Amino acid sequence: MFLQTISDAAGATALPQPYLLFLGDTVEPGFAKTAFGLRDWAPEKCTAEYALPGATVTTGLPAMSPAQAHQAGARALLIGVANSGGVLPDNWLPALVEALEAGLDIVSGLHMRLAESPILADTAARLGRRLIDVRHPPHDIKIGTGRKRSGKRLLTVGTDCALGKKYTALAVARGFADRGVDSDFRATGQTGIMIAGGGIPMDAVVSDFEAGAAEMLSPDSAPDHWDVIEGQGSLFHPVYAAVSMGLLHGSQPDCIIVCHHPGRTEMLGTPGYALPSVEEAIDLNLRVGGRTNPAIRCAGIAFNTAYLDEGEAVALMAEESRRLGLPVADPIRRGAAFDQLIDNCLS
Amino acid sequence: MFLQTISDAAGATALPQPYLLFLGDTVEPGFAKTAFGLRDWAPEKCTAEYALPGATVTTGLPAMSPAQAHQAGARALLIGVANSGGVLPDNWLPALVEALEAGLDIVSGLHMRLAESPILADTAARLGRRLIDVRHPPHDIKIGTGRKRSGKRLLTVGTDCALGKKYTALAVARGFADRGVDSDFRATGQTGIMIAGGGIPMDAVVSDFEAGAAEMLSPDSAPDHWDVIEGQGSLFHPVYAAVSMGLLHGSQPDCIIVCHHPGRTEMLGTPGYALPSVEEAIDLNLRVGGRTNPAIRCAGIAFNTAYLDEGEAVALMAEESRRLGLPVADPIRRGAAFDQLIDNCLS
């Protein structure tokens, strides 16, 4: 099991596991990305799936009722589907109440808090169950200190938002585990937190506490232990760079991997803002990150090449690797280039 | 009146004015920095002072009861003293209730919210008065857009925290006003907000909204209007840089002034972290700020030279000005160097 809970990071959310994946009445696979992410990255944490009549989406896991799942070991129903607006539909409520009555807590990444539903709040209070909203950070985050912590850390950073920082961190953590390296994936966004079973939603932390939250997320560890930390946003993003800045300072990474989408020309959501080059992103991240860890280095580049065919992607990455003098790999395609990237992180 | 309210910045706190400055039973002038700041920087917003028996600190303003102050035009009692812990002492409560009954709202920068006191909450509700905690940001801050806004902006940035960014911005705003330049001081911390009569406490904003809050703080304005924005923290501070980053991106400054304390060797509160050089601070701030305003430039340096005598300070600033090729001035000492700094901002 390469993904562990982070109950050792005092105060960071530690989720009840394993999960019963709730699919609602979803007919659109795109809305079930959370459930698929859980199945792909934390199968040992997924007992079964549970869908309402009319749902056509499936993860391929066994279908169980909440009572059956509880009997099979599940400890929480996890809402594995998003819906537009982030609000809990009324027709899901009977199933969620059923889960609470079957002995399961509920884990949600929806924008709306679970306890805003009176029937869920009342039922959970009556039965002593937990309603856990992973979009909301813990209340006991402290101001950072800048103190150097023991152990090794890797942070995925980006030229932009939404181009593979979570996926890259998960793939690197798995690569480390495959080589027998003691490591933890440290999650900073809601889907990552569900996969890891814990973490801190860094974009929801008050800015004065941003670096402190990152410090709390990856505490002191054994000298050869690696924390592989999911990056957020980009130092170059005109809207979200505050999140990236605090996460970089507080993470004190020994290694960064720069995640990039070579086919994207404009920053997500901000027309007119060009993506920085990979070299600019390496340079600024090393400069800023060097403030809290002077030994920081860039171990390589993760390209998102889904828009290219295999031959084009491999050729582009080989050319960029020669030009930059660093491993360049697509963590979805894997292959020899990805092995080189993992090797370079550990070298 | 060079300081105006920012009720034009939709949603940013706009405080009821003028104020009756409340001094509690304070005997230590250091605890009354807020009251002195108001007297020095916004005298037109200060009707009178009000102290409890035993107080020895005075601002020199006329002493009035809440009823007298209301009659004289005051619209709020402003708590002008801090106390250790940021909690409201019980022996202040009768005076605060008296103020509400006299028709005044209450403005506080204490950590504790005013409404946590049941008697204040009840009295304010009964009389329809407002209890305003300036440490807490407005609820309607939106995600930023990165869109370029009209008008001119200046931001004070720092090599560290607590070395004169607020004071420099206030002095520059006054210098602009003295030259007849249309400008507003935009406050980002609690004392600044009380002085300006509005603003956003940037360190209390959720990090995802940090740049958006800065965008809201200095909205579109006339082409030759200047917003002079109070800086926070430092891009180099291992704990607070997230605040500085979002504020820099969202402010889109045309000019920065780098604030520095030449006698300080270590970052505030983080042992082992050296201050960056002025050149490093100029370079990184221009690089990061250039992302949202490619025309950004450094107009000069503000030195905090309180630890030097006049001759030493003037000699050091002249030497540094030659070396850096920029005006270097102490906004408390003023003089010709400060005039040059103002000129260079407007050039």
From TrEMBL, chains A, B:
Transmembrane segments: none
Superkingdom of the organism of origin: Bacteria
InterPro entries on file: DgcN-like, DgcN-like_C, DgcN-like_N, P-loop_NTPase
Residue stretches making up the D-glutamate N-acetyltransferase-like C-terminal domain: 143-336
Short name of one Pfam family: DUF1611
D-glutamate N-acetyltransferase-like N-terminal domain ranges (all copies): 58-137
Gene3D superfamilies, sorted: NAD(P)-binding Rossmann-like Domain (3.40.50.720), P-loop containing nucleotide triphosphate hydrolases (3.40.50.300)
PANTHER family: DUF1611 DOMAIN-CONTAINING PROTEIN, GLL3100 PROTEIN
Protein name: EBNA-1 nuclear protein
Species, as recorded: Sphingomonas bisphenolicum
Lineage: Bacteria, Pseudomonadati, Pseudomonadota, Alphaproteobacteria, Sphingomonadales
